[in-house]
Automatic annotation (TrEMBL):
Belongs to the BET1 family. The chain crosses the membrane at residues 107-125. It is a single-pass type IV membrane protein. Residues 36-98 form the T-SNARE coiled-coil homology domain. It comes from the Eukaryota. SMART domains: t_SNARE (SM00397). This is t-SNARE coiled-coil homology domain-containing protein. It is found in: Endoplasmic reticulum membrane; Golgi apparatus membrane.
Length: 126
């Protein structure tokens, strides 16, 4: 929640003083004449722009770090999925071998019936 609030504060600080037509004329010009620019106001506007550029640079660096961390996380997830797919296919191959032989089929039915019997006893004593 604080990160979202900080993002809004950064956004407000970044676009503070900018209107639809650009930077406010009152902050740039000290007199009513369009061609007379006060040097002090010009320096203030330049400092404001420099601060905004630095803020944008910081935000873009933070976004870059976030994207890199998400890419690393997605790569790890992809590798984990590949390894789990290999384990699952090996398990399925072993499961198929169990059902191919008759003695294994009997063993499976014995184990399955014991599991069912255990579950029935568990629910009756509960």
């Amino acid at each position: 929640m604080n990160a979202r609030r900080d993002g809004r504060n950064n956004r407000v600080a970044l676009f503070d003083g900018i209107e639809e037509g650009g930077i406010r004329a009152s902050s740039l010009y000290s007199s009513t004449s369009f061609h007379e620019i006060d040097e002090h106001d010009n320096e203030q506007a330049l400092d404001g722009l420099q601060d905004r550029v630095n803020l944008l640079k910081t935000l873009s660096g933070d976004i870059h770090e976030e994207v890199d961390s998400h890419n690393r996380m997605l790569d790890r997830m992809g590798n984990d999925m590949d390894s789990s797919r290999g384990v699952l296919s090996g398990t399925m191959d072993k499961f198929k071998m169990v059902f191919e032989t008759k003695s294994s089929r009997r063993m499976f039915s014995l184990v399955a019936s014991l599991v069912v019997l255990f579950l029935i006893i568990y629910y009756l004593t509960r």
